[in-house]
């Protein structure tokens, strides 16, 4: 059994099972047995089951959100959005089974058609920072395409995933089609990589573990989707709406206590407006409300664990702190929103993913300098740029090496559109039509005439 801790209080409030190798194998084998019948379900019936699953999630939004507030320290506003996102993503992909068409390709001597075939058992490995949405982005398209799923939540945050597994059964998904397998990454997650019945791994987590999964998957030529770390840039040009850019910058990095792969943790400000921008940013950072995440006005909760707090602290100790917000000091793993001045692109807090409420700031000279600095990283997941010049917005958007970029906003994820990383931030795309196809293989059939 694993203790489940409330990060806002540091207290254990429940325990969950931690599956061993034999139980993991049994789940994978159940999923493999369930696959032939699930892929044979008529497209309209599979669509109806996914819509029913979405409806059951919708009936349990408050319950799921409360679990996440308690287990992950998410603010109640965020947790409600996250539960709603699972429902929406299920609804979106429920449209897929009836539209997953192949092509008819003109060839001499016969008829040529393609099919999008499901892969079999898909293993989904989820981190602790966004347990619900990241689970849904994997299981909804995987199930829609006709695969069966085994899902491993992070040991720290298993509760909502376990509940979603129960809700799937309540909605009428057949036994074995969607199973949640809680346990350690080195046991359950690693078994997904080595078990021959698992045909694809959909992994979200650190770049380090992602690389080891990709290497392990090579042995059986497993398909992989990897969503890894980030060090995204927020680029503010002198011609931008500075008030709006400054008001929204704290949320873009401190939301979810900075434990967000898309966090805009590197702030690049054009030097001619650097001082002015920091003077606008400071009150916004100080006003960022860090408190009990169950409070409706909470903007940020605690960090996930004591050891993570130690890691985040190590980036701030000895660095040049420009200004900080405030946070509770007792019970749980609180950390104030913190803005650090970078003096060189070699500063550790500028280069590495902190995964906490820490923003590094650096001035830049011109457009070319901004692009050079933004791209000076092995990560490439998300980012923002602020300008009123449409030409510049397009030039910089094309030049920045990142999978998702937002102009004059900080959004990264919309379930209709592809999401994923360039360079070492990942491989493949989630959400939108791209994710659906990544859970299929194309089969080509030729009929001689
Ligand atoms: P990891 O330590 O990589 O853990 C992620 C998941 O992998 C957990 O479920 C973990 O299990 C499991 N795992 C650990 N070792 C494994 C192994 N050898 N084989 C198979 N599975 C294994 O990451 P984390 O610290 O939880 O999450 C933070 C990282 O995720 C950050 O770098 C963040 O940027 C990234 N992230 C990326 C995205 C996207 S969409 N790109 C989204 C969210 C987070 P345990 O429960 O045992 O740890």
Descriptive account of the structure:
The protein has 449 residues and is α/β, with parallel strands linked by helices. The protein has 2 domains: 2-228 and 425-448, Aldehyde Dehydrogenase, Chain A, domain 1; 233-407, Aldehyde Dehydrogenase, Chain A, domain 2. 41% of the residues lie in helices and 20% in strands. The protein has helices at residues 21-40, 43-59, 61-72, 76-94, 131-144, 159-170, 185-194, 207-218, 242-254, 274-286, 306-316, 348-351, 367-374, 390-399, 432-438; strands at residues 2-6, 11-16, 104-107, 110-118, 121-125, 148-152, 178-180, 198-204, 223-227, 233-236, 266-270, 320-324, 338-341, 358-364, 383-386, 406-407, 426-427, 440-448. The strands form 4 sheets. A 7-stranded mixed β-sheet has the order 12-13-14-11-10-15-16, with helices on both faces. Helix 2 runs antiparallel to helix 4, helix 3 (61-72) packs across helix 4 (76-94) and helix 9 packs across helix 10 (274-286). It starts with a strand and ends with a strand. The model has no long low-confidence stretch (mean pLDDT 98). The structure holds 7-thionicotinamide-adenine-dinucleotide phosphate.
């Amino acid at each position: 059994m694993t203790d489940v801790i409330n990060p806002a209080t540091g207290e254990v409030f429940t325990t969950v099972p931690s599956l061993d190798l034999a139980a993991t194998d049994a789940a994978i084998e159940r999923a493999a047995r369930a696959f032939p019948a699930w892929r044979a379900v008529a497209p309209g019936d599979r669509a109806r089951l996914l819509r029913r699953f979405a409806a059951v999630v919708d009936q349990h939004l408050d319950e799921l959100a409360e679990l996440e507030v308690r287990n992950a320290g998410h603010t109640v506003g965020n947790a409600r959005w996250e539960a709603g996102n699972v429902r929406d993503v299920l609804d979106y992909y429920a449209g897929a089974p009836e539209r997953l068409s192949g092509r008819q390709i003109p060839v001499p001597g016969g008829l040529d058609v393609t099919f999008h075939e499901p892969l079999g058992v898909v293993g989904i490995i989820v981190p602790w920072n966004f347990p619900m949405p990241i689970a849904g982005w994997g299981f909804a398209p995987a199930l829609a395409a006709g695969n069966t799923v085994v899902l491993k939540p992070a040991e720290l945050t298993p509760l909502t995933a376990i509940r979603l597994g129960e809700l799937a059964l309540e909605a009428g998904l057949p036994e074995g089609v969607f199973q949640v397998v809680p346990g350690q990454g080195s046991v359950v997650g690693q078994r997904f990589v080595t078990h021959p019945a698992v045909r694809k791994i959909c992994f979200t987590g650190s770049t380090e573990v992602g690389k080891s999964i990709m290497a392990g998957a090579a042995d059986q030529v497993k398909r992989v989707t990897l969503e890894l770390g980030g060090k995204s840039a927020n680029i503010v040009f002198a011609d931008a709406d500075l008030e709006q850019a400054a008001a929204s910058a704290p949320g873009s990095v401190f939301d979810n206590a900075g434990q967000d792969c898309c966090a805009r943790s590197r702030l690049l400000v054009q030097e001619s407006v650097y001082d002015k921008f920091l003077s606008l940013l400071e009150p916004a950072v100080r006003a960022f409300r860090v408190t009990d995440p169950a409070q409706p006005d909470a903007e940020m909760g605690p960090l996930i664990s004591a050891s993570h707090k130690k890691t985040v602290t190590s980036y701030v100790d000895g660095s040049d702190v420009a200004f900080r917000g405030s946070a509770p000091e007792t019970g749980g793993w609180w950390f104030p929103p913190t803005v650090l001045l970078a003096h060189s692109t070699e500063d550790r807090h500028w280069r590495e993913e902190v995964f906490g409420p820490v923003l590094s700031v650096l001035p830049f000279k011109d457009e070319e300098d901004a692009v050079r600095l933004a791209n000076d990283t092995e990560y490439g997941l998300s980012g923002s740029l602020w300008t009123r010049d449409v030409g510049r917005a397009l030039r910089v958007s094309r030049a920045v090496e990142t999978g998702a970029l937002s102009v004059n906003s900080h959004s990264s994820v919309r379930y209709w559109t592809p999401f994923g990383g360039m360079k070492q931030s990942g491989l493949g795309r989630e959400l939108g039509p791209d994710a659906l196809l990544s859970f299929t293989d194309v089969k080509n059939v030729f009929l001689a005439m």
